[in-house]
Every structure is written in C-alpha cells, then in structure tokens.
Amino acid sequence: MMNAASGVLASIPSPPVNEFFLGPIPIRYYALCIIAGIIVAVLLTNHRLTKRGAEPWVVIDIALVAVPLGIIGARIFHVLTHPGFYFGAGSNPWNPFEPGSVWAIWEGGIAIFGALLGGAVGAWLGCRWTGIRFWTFADALAPGILLAQAFGRFGNWFNQELYGLPTDLPWGLEIAPGNPALPVGLAPGTLFHPTFLYEVIWNTMGVCMLLAAGHRFRLQWGRLFGLYLVWYGAGRIVWESIRIDPSEIYFGLRTNVWAAIVGVIVGLAIFFVQRRRHPGIEPSPYVPGREWSPQGTVQSQDTEDFVDVSAPPVSEGTTTEVREATATSTAATK
C-alpha cells in the first residue's frame, strides 16, 4: 500500500487487534504464539531424542520442569533489566491486582535470555529425573528452541511492539498512532523496521543451519547447542541495536545487546571446550546406569547399538569357540 508520509509504495500492516474473547476471558494472540512455539519445540525435540535411542516422549517429563522455570526466568530477567517500569515513584510492584505489578505477566514483559537461564535449570533437573544426558537434551532441543523463538516473534507483531528505527524501505512496518513506543515528533504514517520479521527469518535460517550442521558434522556433547547460542546471539546483537523500545543502557549498549554478546561468548566456550573434552561421539543419550529398556533391551554404554539382555549368560568356563557361537546366534536373532 502507499504510505503518504514517506512515499513508499508498500508496507507491512500491523494487526488491528491482539486478542479475542471466549466469553469474558481475553485470549491474547501473543500467548497463542508462545504456546505454538512450545508445542513445535517439544515435537521436534522428541523426534530428535527418539532417533538417538531415548524413550519416546521423555521430553515431556523434562518440559514439565523446564517450561515453567523458563517462564519464571523470562519474567525475572525482564523485571530486573527494566526496573523503571516497576519500581518508579508511586508504583506498587508487589500488589498482583495493581497495573504494572511484577506479577502481571499477562500485561507483557518476558525476556528470552531469562527463559534460557531458567529453562536450563529446569532442563538440568528434568534430565536428572529421567536419566537423559543434559548435553544430549540440549543438542536435541537447539533447532526446536530456535523455531519456537520464530513463532514467538509473531506475538510481537500482534502487539505492535519491539519494532525498529524509522525506515523508507518497502517492507516498513505500520504502527498505529498512539502506540506508547512511538518517538515524539515523527510524521504521521512513518514506517519502522520490522525487527520481528528480521528475527523470524534469521531464526528460520538458523533452524536449517543447525539441522544440517548437526547431521553433517555429528555435533554432540553440547556443541550444537553452543552453535545455537552463537547464531541467535549474533543476530540478536543486530536486531536489538536498531530497536527503539525503552531499555536500560550500559556503556552505550542496550541491556539485551550485552546479554546477546554474553550468549555468543558462552556458545563459543561450550563449542570449543566440549570439542576438546569429548572428541568422540556420545555412547548413549542416557547417563550410565539409567538406560531405557524397551522390550527386553538395554542400550550399550560404549556403542549406539542395542544388545539383547534376554540372551543366556555365558559361564566362566565356557570356551572361546562357544562364546563366539553364542554371540553369532544372538546377532542372528536381532
């Protein structure tokens, strides 16, 4: 469409509403985008873990701990990095019934870096509970979490939030007049960089890259997750630098730019430290002694093959020839 102020022939419209009602209950599209992202991440992670030999749907046991702690971490990180929103003069941040309360997560305000920290704690606890290796789970999750983040960014589009600097590009984003983040003094009809779309595209490319790199180079022991942190952090540094929503500034950089820089550094450290510590492949998705036993089988701790535990044991006095015959017979029955 034509934008009168800038003379641009095309633009991206923003949705006119960000919620609908089921009776008296408001259902926000942002929440639906987050839920959709969680679902696709669980499905993709389950597929990847099962291919490694894990019990089908064990990811749900881990997600039951990781998802709530991820949401809590996301809220805490947002509140701590935006203290002026909640602890200014005249505010009552601890009253859950007051607007602007730290508890009012339904008003918006979660941060992906806090979700990663809280979710990591929850995933570690869930892996301890199920016996899955933490780094195996992290590698299986990496493409799924990036895809979930792509879904979540559509929620920012519905909310008309977290957009970038003004632009005359044909894919500029329309923002409704009266939006609280609009800079003062801009001409009506000014368009903005659609940072939500930039991140959707970047994250989708990252999913393809992670799947290809993980398959081609067999990145295990947390190295694929480290690569995820580098990819996401690098993109976030760029998108965050052109956003105009309010943020705390430290040494000339927004809080989330610093968080993204830390993410890149941590990702590189994980990649190279784990590469040095574990040059081989993971023997099993389970920690030793916690292997899953489907229909009378257990997974070997030294290979990714399965061995039949129903085969009769070989006595100490059995000859080498009998041992070899027993092994051949067992292999033939598989």
From TrEMBL:
Segments of skewed composition (Polar residues): 316-334
Amino-acid positions noted as binding a 1,2-diacyl-sn-glycero-3-phospho-(1'-sn-glycerol) in the UniProt annotation, renumbered to this chain: 153
EC number(s) from the headed UniProt entry: 2.5.1.145
Pfam families in UniProt: LGT
UniProt keyword annotation of Glycoprotein present: no
GO annotation (BP), single: lipoprotein biosynthetic process
Pathway: Protein modification; lipoprotein biosynthesis (diacylglyceryl transfer)
Gene Ontology CC terms, in alphabetical order: plasma membrane
Region annotation (Disordered) ranges: 284-334
Function: Catalyzes the transfer of the diacylglyceryl group from phosphatidylglycerol to the sulfhydryl group of the N-terminal cysteine of a prolipoprotein, the first step in the formation of mature lipoproteins.
Name of the protein in its database record: Phosphatidylglycerol--prolipoprotein diacylglyceryl transferase
Organism: Microbacterium lemovicicum
Name of the coding gene: lgt
